[in-house]
Structure formats: structure tokens, C-alpha cells
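Incident log, entry 3
Record: Glycosyltransferase (328 residues)
Problem: checksum mismatch between cached and fresh output.
Input:
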Amino acid sequence: MGVKWVPVWPGGPQALLAHLHTDLIREIVGVGDEALKTYGDKSIDFVPGLSQYHASDLPEGIIVGDVQSSFSTMLHQMAHRLPNSTVIVLNTIQGLDSTVDSFFTQKFTNYFPTGPFHLLNSTGPEPLTDPYDCLSWLDQHEPSTVAYISVGTIVTIPPSELTSLANGLATSGAPFIWSLNEKTQSLLPPGFIDKINETGKGKIVPWAPQISVLGHTAVGVFVSHCGYNSVMESIAAGVPILCRPFFGDHMTMARAISHIWKIGIALDGMAFTEQGVVRALEVVLKGEEGRKMRDKVRELKDMVNIAVSQEGSSWDNLKRLVKIVCRC
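Fresh output:
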């Protein structure tokens, strides 16, 4: 019927770049735990755009995890077909990662970085939903002093790490808002919630208006699983990220955050431990290294604001996309 194919990739461009080279990566690195042991700490310098990433940073389904699952197979097959698309639309901005931009520009006739989606999707001020008064609580705190913790709605923190995170927050003394569903709240150390309520140091809620919370001046760090939407929301808000990746492309994003963009820090051993949480919060909220992270992520925030403004790169790409789709 002559219909144009316009695939939209809402995840990290770095992950997509890796999926596009699955065959080459498997040929050189191999597949499975043994391949990871041998090649895990080596850079993927044979793939344009991934030279700063290690094999252990690659998304699940390429060399580790269930590489034969229906999801992994679908991604693999998709990668073979993507070069036939009319346009490829990615949830990023031009210039956020120049090596990634370079690859996609050369690989695809029409590469449209058209993000962050959550900003372009906004049609104007919407009624604020804050049933647990997170923002009024944040109003009581100094700029860049509060930790916001959320690992999304799919991730489940292992019980031992949940305890370690709670103890680390208590030991650090840093004020925090923790978005944690009620079922998981019941697994916290006995008396923890009562203690933070008494001291006023923390606030645990079953849901928080994440974009509004990240945009509050009091928030100084986002403790995150590094899901791509959360990463983009944090960058758009100018907030550094403390990384505890779990699955999928979380490891890829953690590497970008901590080593490439240098807008955050990865937890020791990629897991919550009491001392690891204390140390990381100290670094990001109080140390000179944390100040540099804030400066850097605010530079990226400025780039985002320019990209989504009228005549910015994302705005321009969105207009170009509409013309192609509508044939106008």
C-alpha cells in the first residue's frame, strides 16, 4: 500500500545501537556467563559509538540473560529490519551523545532525535496531582539537599537490599522522599517508618508526582534503577543520579550516567549496602564531586530546554516527522 514505516524507539539510543550489532558482538564476545567472565571488563571498541562501554554494560538478551527468549529474538529480528525504515525516531536530543548521533546519522537516511518525549508531549500546565503532599514537604528543605528514591513500578528491591537502603538513609541523615508501594513498605525494618515520621527526616509515599518532585529545587539526587524514562526526566530537571541498575538496559544507562556524561555515581557492586548508600549520598549531596555532577547535569538540562524550544532540534525534527507521515 506504500505506507511509510516510521519506528519509534522510546528507550536508550545506546541500547538500540547495541541491539543493531548483536551478531557482531556475539561473534567477538560470545554468549553466556563464560563470555562475560572473559570479556566483561573489556570495552566494545569494535562497535562505533560503544567504545566507552564494557561488555558487562550491554543490555540483557545480547550476550547474557535468556538470549533465546521471545523478547530477545524480537529485538534481534527488529535490528535486522530497522535500516529499511523511512525514518527512525529516538527519545533523545541532538548532541547528548555525539558518537551515537554520528552512528545513526550515517546508518539511517532520516535520523530524528525527537525527545525528551515527556516534554514534547506537554500541551500546557496540567492540574497538579500530589495526594501525599510531597511538594509541600520539599518546600521545607534547602536547595539540593533531599534524596528522591524510586525504582519504578516493575522493579522489586531484594529484601536484604531494602533493609540496607533503609539503614543507609537513616545513617546518612540526609532528608529523603521514597516512592514505595504499600506492599513493599511492610518489608521495611520494624519501626523504620515510625522513626522517620518522628524525626521528620524522611517521607515514604506509595506514589509521587515524579516530574514535579525532580523539578523541585530541594531535590539534590535521584536514587534510581536507571530506567530510560527516569533518566531523561532527571536530566531534564537537572538532578544527578545515584544508580542501582537491575535488568534490561539499566546497566547501559548506569555507565552513561557515571562514566560518560558524569552526572551521577553507580553504587559499589551495583547493589544497595548500608555503607555504600551513606558514601554515595555523601559524595553527591555534600562533596566537590557532587557539585561537579550538578554543574554538568544542569548543562545537559540547558541543552534539553533549547532542543524542545521552538526551532530547537527536537521541535524541528518533530515538524519534519509530521510532514513525512502526512506527506505534506
